[in-house]
Amino acid sequence: MQGAAGALAGIDVTIVIMYMIGVFVLGTFFGKYVKDAGDFFVASRALPFWAIGMSIVVSDIGAMDFVAVAGSAFTDGIAVANFDWIGSMPAMVFAAFVFVPYFWRSGVYTIPEWLGRRYNAGVQIIHAAMWGIFLLTMLSLMLWVTGDELMNTMLGWDPELVVWLMVFITGVYTFSGGLSAVVMVDVVQLIIMFIGGISLLVLSMWEVGGPVGLQEKITSTEPRVIISLQSEEEIQPATVEEALAKAGFNVTKVDRAPMRTDNANPNRFVARLETVEIDATKSEDIAATRTKAKELIESALSGVVTSEEEPEFQLRTYESHFKILLPHHTDKPYPWTGIVFGLGIVLAVAYMSGNQAIVQRTLGARSEWDAKGGMLFGGFLKSFIPLMVAVPGLCAVVLIPDLAEGDRAVPEMIGMLLPPGLKGLMFVALFAALMSSVDSTLSSASTIWTTDLFGRFYQIFSGKEMDEKFGLFMGRAFTLVFIILAGIMAPWIGQAEGLYVFIQTLLSMFQGPTLAILLLGIIWPRANRWGGLAGLSLGVVFTLTLNSIDGLFPSDDPFLFVAWWSFVFSMIVTVVVSLLTPPEPEEKIRGLVWGQVMHDGEIQRVLGEKASK
Amino acid sequence: MSEWINSTLGPLLQHLFQPIDQALAGVYMPWAKIVALSYFIGTMVWVFVGLKKEYVNLEAPSKHIWHDLRFWTVISMMPHVIVYLYL
Lengths: 613, 87
Prior knowledge:
The complex is a heterodimer of chains A (about 625) and B (about 90).
Chain A: H1 10-29, H2 37-42, H3 49-60, H4 63-76, H5 89-106, H6 111-118, H7 121-155, H8 159-208, H9 210-219, E1 224-228, H10 237-246, E2 251-256, E3 268-273, H11 286-302, E4 312-316, H12 336-354, H13 356-363, H14 368-382, H15 385-389, H16 391-399, H17 409-417, H18 422-462, H19 468-495, H20 497-523, H21 529-548, H22 559-580, H23 586-589, H24 594-599, H25 601-612
Helix pairs in contact in A: 1-8, 1-18, 3-8, 3-13, 3-14, 3-18, 4-16, 5-12, 5-14, 6-7, 7-8, 7-18, 7-19, 7-20, 8-9, 8-16, 8-18, 8-19, 12-20, 12-22, 13-18, 18-19, 20-21, 20-22, 21-22
Chain B: H1 2-8, H2 10-25, H3 29-50, H4 53-56, H5 69-86
């Protein structure tokens, strides 16, 4: 069987096999250095800044990002790069200088553990349970999505075979070497990912005539309407053309969309328009013109079929494909207000400071300078990611403009542009992106389950803390159980889309409130356990409320706005409840509040000794 | 549940959020660029001016400029400033 990217040549298969063996050997090599829980969870606190930075980037970028981000760039333009630019760099600077030093100095393994020290066990367990379940589900999902939607679609490989191959390789080296194995393998994987990504970028740009050629060609590309009609009869392109012409559009051509999969709808069309502007749509406001044009297209298509199901269509215009900031009222998914406030200030900071998979690397730093420097270096490297994942999507607008699904852009481009050898390297890059995300998620999930859930209950019931050897045993046990469980659950989770959406929605509800209590916990000594608990729980309820009310925000999927307002709400609740309840004893918050660490020499000395132990 | 929230809290929150939505919709787009650039530049200024040099570079391997994380911050953020200025 052959997928969209064509078959792999002998040299490509050799490269993929050599890569798999190399990663396996390198990862398991670090097993001999693991003697206790500290070695396993935080790499004996010996990681240099460059390894931390590289590992953060490659853990964050999954194989599906290559496909999904390129797809989004193909349909919505360069604005998707905001997630790696304004949605990363400032947040990583804040994480480096505000959050990381505190987590690092306090000697914790996880963020929930820090929250437990600063607030109470309730906050720790709620936060840990949410992340623990999310990471486990993500593990299954990323295995399946890559196996099925990437390797099966591109190469025609059996998805279950890909899943179990990944389970075996990543499972063995994560079990054996813990965080040090994960980080060192990530370093190699980042280099491979960059080589593969840059190859695709260079060849794509060559084909379109460089940056200037790309911009000129995209802005002169005719608008398109991708139409999907539900009908048992086969509808002719001429019928669709006639309906659109009647509605007042100058239609250049209507073709059937290329049928890429066996179950693709035969009544799917690509209509090229001269312009989306007709007398009824002309407006100063591009978004208003597009909205009006969409209404006209919808009514025109309703007349083509009598099916009860409404016609589906997607209007693609390219006038804003090179605009990084889009108006507040836009029918594209990234309005500037949501991007700056929701993404840049809340979601990105919450992600970079509150995501165990990211922060765990800095907790393994050999010094505080390396922890901070690792974050900054990671932010710098991350700036290049859109060039490798978004720009090829833009090039696809020029090279394969009639593609019905944006997510097919990268597979088609790989098949079309990369010669044997480079194609193998690109697939190795995709495997590297997948494996680095899997190993990081696995390592973080086992850390949270061992430290914050099992460890916390062990302490409650036995009255003592786990020792280092027992911690290592439990960490490895959770690693083994989770990776096997993820492999078994992968096909089921992959098909139960509703479950994944539910869990992701649930996690997104925590982002704003978690950031609020993290931030206040660090900068404001008066924040107390009751404030933290109320801020987190009521913040989540408020997020649920905002998500349930229709039409509150200008976007169909208003997660960026919901994140911002839930953050503001939780800040207010935490402040009010903290002021209405007694403050924490000074001894409890000693060394956990930013002002003290900045200005109190005695505390700095004690923290330095504590961190060096 | 969703219907109940829509009917009870919906109108109240609509009153709160709609004026904000309308105000933001009227913002002149160059202001969006200024806000985004201010976020990057403000972060750089905060690291350089707001934080003590000793805190930023605690445990640095040397006092050389290439180990000064304040400069790392600027070097990492300047490409972003250029991108948001021109795109």
